[in-house]
DNA sequence: GAATCTAAGTTAGAGCTCTAATGCTCGTCA
DNA sequence: TGACGAGCATTAGAGCTCTAACTTAGATTC
């Protein structure tokens, strides 16, 4: 380790020793939120890295994935599936549309609704990206037993319930 | 439920039935990544909501928290603690500095390093925000037994290891 | 039939995030 | 001593994300 890094590291440890007593009301390592955030950061970073060669971002892949399973869905419904707000989805879809990976056509009955669909190019990109993303998911799944996977999914589900209940 | 929503919902189900066969190589519900992402989205949304009255974003709170535990730390080291890149931390710190919640002073020995510290105002905002954030963490912790908390943290830790190993 | 309500789509603005690239300081090593 | 390498800080540019606000279309209700 180099001296520059050592010095900031040394300062850090010294200050930590001095002030560690009771700066915050809960140690970071005991916060479940920290673990969830770290896991998501690692997931995001890895997915972004493997999706890069496919030419799509994580958000774009998420949209393409749900779009491939729900052709003609509205942008608002797609936003709900992806867990983002309509303006966010609008941003993502505009980028996909600029690259001609999707098309948006007026709904036959409801003038206020746009049907969103993959183009042929979009389907091709989606297939490539999906293969790459699934490779990561399979590696992740292979790390655990069936019981562990179920436990993790269950615990995370309870987190979501609690957090949504707790939201003002 | 209204007709507008019903129609998109109906279309969705119809299309799903038609195409469900084998559009993707792995069902979304079986992807551990989906569960992690959902949990982080719920966490983020709830934390943003409870931090809003304190006048800070989640990213700003994260920086203030680690800053309060490590006075004088460099921006790069702070970025590592928060799990973001230096340019990202620079953006967050600029916003905090504009509001006079932090100050950055040249390092005594190393001309190339800036020491970052909370101002008095920053400490006050941090104390307020921390109380609000910890309330959420306590509620989250109270949802689980000691064994469940340990299991969740352990499983998420293994996810992080696998994902970093898998990253090209 | 008109007021009201709900949902879809959009725009504006603020903030976070990344990669890529640059300039700087310092330490190491030949 | 001088070249190299590593780390810090910063800028530029693209993209994602949110809230707030507006517009429009369709449905409900009186």
Distinctive features:
homodimer; 168 residues; Arc Repressor Mutant, subunit A; two-stranded antiparallel sheet; 7 helices; 2 strands; DNA-binding
Spatial gap, N to C terminus of chain A: 46 Å
Unreliable runs of chain A:
1-21
Name of the CATH architecture of one domain in chain A:
Orthogonal Bundle
Rounded Rg of chain A: 22 Å
What is the strand content of chain A? 5-15%
- For the largest sheet of chain A, list the strands in their spatial order: 1-2
**Sheet bearing the most strands of chain A, described?**
2 strands, antiparallel
CATH class of one domain in chain A: Mainly Alpha
Order of helices and strands of chain A: HHHHHEEHH
Task: Explain this structure.
The structure is a homodimer of 168-residue chains. With 168 residues, the first copy, chain A, is mainly alpha-helical. Helices cover 68% and strands 6% of the residues of chain A. Chain A contains 7 helices and 2 strands. Chain A has a two-stranded antiparallel sheet with strand order 1-2. The radius of gyration of chain A is 22 Å and the shape is globular. Chain A starts with a helix and ends with a helix. The model of chain A is unreliable at 1-21 (pLDDT under 50). Chains A and B meet through helix 1, helix 2, helix 3, helix 6 and helix 7 of A and helix 1, helix 2, helix 3, helix 6 and helix 7 of B. Chain A binds a DNA duplex (30 and 30 nucleotides) through residues 2-5, 8, 45, 48, 57-60, 74-77, 84-88, 90-92, 95, 110-114.
């Amino acid at each position: 380790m180099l001296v520059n890094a050592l010095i900031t590291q040394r300062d850090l440890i010294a200050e930590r020793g001095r002030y560690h007593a009771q700066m915050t009301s809960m140690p970071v390592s005991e916060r479940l939120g920290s673990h969830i955030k770290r896991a998501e950061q690692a997931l995001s970073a890895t997915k972004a890295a493997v999706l890069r060669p496919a030419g799509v971002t994580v958000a774009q892949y998420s949209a393409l994935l749900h779009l491939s399973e729900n052709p003609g869905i509205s942008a608002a419904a797609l936003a709900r599936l992806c867990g983002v707000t309509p303006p966010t989805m609008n941003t993502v879809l505009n980028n996909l549309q600029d690259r001609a990976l999707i098309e948006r056509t007026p709904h036959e009955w409801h003038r206020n609704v746009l049907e969103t669909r993959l183009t042929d190019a979009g389907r091709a990109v989606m297939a490539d990206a999906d293969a790459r993303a699934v490779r990561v998911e399979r590696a992740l799944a292979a790390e655990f037993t069936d019981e562990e996977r179920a436990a993790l999914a269950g615990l995370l589900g309870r987190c979501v319930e609690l957090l949504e209940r707790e939201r003002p």
